[in-house]
């Protein structure tokens, strides 16, 4: 990954975020509100604005994923909110039930600010993408969708990656070939329970 080293979280910060995400799951799945967060209790880095996605997996399969592309609240709060939303608001899945709490694992992706990717042709777009590194946002009109860099692990071909992302956006899979799209890319600092200090 090319993300600047100084932008990466240290092991302590990752552990705290995973703990906060787990606590958020416990609260919302059991029907209680998230308690107020006292940011003074945590490392300063977690009080800075940050953008994150929280992914839940059960038995290795996706069980929920919610996030945001832009840093608009403290990173610690952003992770809590998206953990709660991944458990209760992902339209692709039923609400997480209490008996699943011990069966799901949490993965957190902290994003860099998305940057426009300039290109003049579909071929150049394919050539400028960096499989395994770039998260990609496609936007056409009011429609927008993103794939985290982790999606490259299951869709390694850039053309197929873009086609599947167009489909996720609700568009024809060939839209990236036939129309000029707004393309943004970003990188992530990704960590999960059971690894990277979690």
Word description of this protein:
The protein is 28% helix and 23% strand. By secondary structure, it is of the alpha+beta class. The strands form two sheets. A four-stranded antiparallel beta sheet has the order 2-1-3-8, with helices on one face. It is globular and about 50 Å long. 35% of the residues are buried.
Number of strands: 8
Shape: globular
CATH class of the largest domain: Alpha Beta
Low-confidence stretches: none
Find the CATH topology of the largest domain.
Glycoprotein, Type 4 Pilin
Mean pLDDT: 93
Q: What is the SS-derived class?
A: alpha+beta
The helicity comes to: 25-40%
Assembly form of the protein: single chain
Largest sheet: 4 strands, antiparallel
Q: Whole-Å distance between the termini?
A: 20 Å
Q: Can you summarize this structure?
A:
The chain has 198 residues and is of the alpha+beta class. It has helices spanning 11-29, 75-88, 122-128, 158-168, 175-178; strands spanning 51-58, 61-67, 104-111, 115-116, 135-140, 143-147, 182-186, 188-192.
């Amino acid at each position: 990954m090319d993300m600047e080293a100084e932008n990466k979280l240290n092991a302590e910060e990752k552990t705290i975020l995973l703990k906060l995400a787990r606590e958020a799951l416990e609260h919302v799945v059991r029907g209680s509100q998230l308690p107020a967060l006292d940011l003074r209790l945590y490392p300063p880095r977690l009080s800075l604005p940050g953008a994150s996605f929280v992914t839940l997996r059960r038995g290795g399969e996706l069980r929920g994923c919610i996030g945001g592309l832009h840093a608009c609240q403290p990173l610690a709060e952003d992770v809590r909110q998206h953990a709660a939303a991944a458990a209760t608001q992902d339209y692709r899945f039923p609400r997480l039930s209490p008996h699943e709490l011990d069966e799901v694992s949490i993965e957190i992706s902290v994003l860099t600010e998305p940057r426009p990717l300039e290109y003049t042709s579909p071929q150049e777009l394919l050539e400028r993408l960096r499989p395994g590194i770039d998260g990609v946002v496609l936007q056409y009109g009011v429609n927008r969708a993103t794939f985290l860099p982790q999606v490259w692990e299951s869709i390694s071909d850039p053309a197929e990656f873009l086609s599947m992302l167009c489909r996720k956006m609700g568009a024809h899979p060939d839209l990236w070939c036939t129309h000029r799209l707004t393309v943004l890319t970003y990188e992530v600092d990704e960590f999960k329970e059971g690894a990277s200090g979690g």
